[in-house]
Each structure stands twice: as C-alpha cells, then as structure tokens.
Amino acid sequence: MVVSGGLCTTGAARLAARGALLAGAGLVTLASPREALSVNAVASLAVMVRPVDGSVELAEFLSDKRRNAVVLGPGAGVGPAMREQVRAALASEAGVVLDADALTSFAEEPAGLFSAIAKRLGRSVVMTPHEGEFSRLFKVITDNIKVNSKLEKARAAARLSGAVVLLKGPDSVVATPDGRASIADNAPAYLATAGSGDVLAGMIAGLLAQHMPAYEAASAAVWLHGEAASAFGPGLVSEDLPEALPAVYRRLFAELSGRRTEGGSDH
C-alpha cells in the first residue's frame, strides 16, 4: 500500500503505487485522505483506493496482515502529521519504505525516527534519500569530514539508523547496518526526471510484498529501475518506468529459461 498526500499532491503516490503493481505486488492500495479520494479513485484502475486519514486510521488499516508493505513520503507533506503516520507504520508488522517527505519530516529530530526503527526488532525498513534528503536527515554524517565516499556515507547511515539505506543517484548505493552494500551503475541519464524516485520507492515495496528481504529488494529494485529506463530510452518520463518493467522481467525469465535448458535441469 502507498500513503497518498492531499488533493494537490496525489501524483507521487500514484506513481509509487503503479511501480509496486508492475514490480509484481498482487494487490496495491492507495491509502487516501478523504479530501483526495475522488481524484485518486478516478485516476486509478488496477490500484485500489481506500479512505485513510491520519495516523490512527493508518494504524488500523495496517492491522490487516495482508497489507504487508507500505510506502510513506511521496507527495505526503512535511510536518508533525507525517511523523505520526511514519510512527504508526513502523509500529505495524508491514515492511516500510520511507521516501521524500517521510524523511524530511524528521530532519530536526532524526533520533526519534531511529528509535522507532530500533523497536521493530529487525522487521524491514528501507530509506530512500537523494543527496539533499540525506544531508538533512544525516547531518551528523555529512558534517564529518572523515566520511568522504558515497559508499562510506550510506554504510554509516545504515549503522546509525538501523535501516537499509538507499542513497540515490547515478551510482545508487544500498547499504545495511551490518556493512553489506551494493552499487548500481546501470542508471541512464534520462532517469533524472521528476517522479522517478517515487516509482522506485513503490518498486521496493512491491518486492517486499513478495517476501523479498529488504536489502535484496532495494538492490534489485534499483537495478530494475535502471534497466526499465534503458529499455524505454530517451524521452522517458516517470509514468513510463512502470510500463517498461514487464519487458525487463520477460528478458530475465527468458534468460533463466535458456540457462535451465542448457543445463538440462529444471532446478
């Protein structure tokens, strides 16, 4: 599921929802404020839309264990209300992807976010900051002149926060609290388009919903994101990314089938 913003900022959540759906989630729901319910409903077909206002209703909505992965942040607004929704999501058993406004909302009190993550006892949390969001949330790291490389910064942030951290960019880094890391170098320049990060957050949640572990889900989604952009080619806008995913999956399955045939085994 994806938590939508208000009436004028629903597009980002819809992009994330479409990313989750085309990444393979069996069912995706937009948790929409009532003020934006009609807009979200009209603009969504395969994605379901349900009225959810505030942290109390979100906690109740997430009590249904079938809703096993949630994205917060795309177009959702910055401030106390967003912080409370994040806390409600982190108190649930769902895998949690925190992006955009969900991260910026804790810029002045990052310790509160990290404390809530620590209480999850290892349940999946993925944070997906770009460089600007990273510098606001992890100021203690960016101000440390001894931490220079992007890889070092992502690893330090993962250790500090207790979450899997995806530091986005042309060479996106995914790092875990125990020091594992992956670097994706397959992102074409035309991925630098508004909304592409929202799609990526949704893709991660779509993989989490299929029970992929958080580190693998984030790493795989970053690679798929880049491959989908390359498959579409120049002229890409964020709406095109989810629609390009099936072609990438078909290629992967064809390669896997070919290897099985060559090996003479279905195992």
Q: Helices and strands: which structural class? A: alpha/beta
Q: CATH superfamily membership, which one?
A: Ribokinase
| Amino-to-carboxy terminus distance | 33 Å
Relative strand content: 5-15%
Measured as a percent range, the helix fraction is 40-55%
Rg, Cα atoms, Å:
18 Å
Secondary-structure element string: EHEHEHEHEHHEHHHEEEHHH
Total number of β-strand segments?
9
Textual characterization of the structure:
By secondary structure, the protein is an alpha/beta fold. The chain has one domain (2-263): Ribokinase (UDP-N-acetylmuramoyl-L-alanine:D-glutamate ligase). Helix content is 49%, strand content 12%. It contains twelve helices and nine strands. The protein has helices at 11-23, 37-42, 54-62, 80-90, 101-104, 110-118, 131-137, 139-142, 150-161, 196-208, 214-232, 240-263, and strands at residues 2-3, 29-32, 48-51, 69-72, 95-98, 125-127, 164-167, 173-175, 181-183. The radius of gyration is 18 Å and the shape is globular.
Question: Short description, anyone?
Answer:
With 267 residues, this protein is an alpha/beta fold. The protein has helices at residues 11-23, 37-42, 54-62, 80-90, 101-104, 110-118, 131-137, 139-142, 150-161, 196-208, 214-232, 240-263, and strands at 2-3, 29-32, 48-51, 69-72, 95-98, 125-127, 164-167, 173-175, 181-183.
Helix/strand layout:
Layout: E1 2-3, H1 11-23, E2 29-32, H2 37-42, E3 48-51, H3 54-62, E4 69-72, H4 80-90, E5 95-98, H5 101-104, H6 110-118, E6 125-127, H7 131-137, H8 139-142, H9 150-161, E7 164-167, E8 173-175, E9 181-183, H10 196-208, H11 214-232, H12 240-263
Parallel strand pairs: 1-2, 2-3, 4-5, 5-6, 6-7
Antiparallel strand pairs: 7-8, 8-9
Helix pairs in contact: 1-10, 1-12, 3-4, 10-11, 11-12
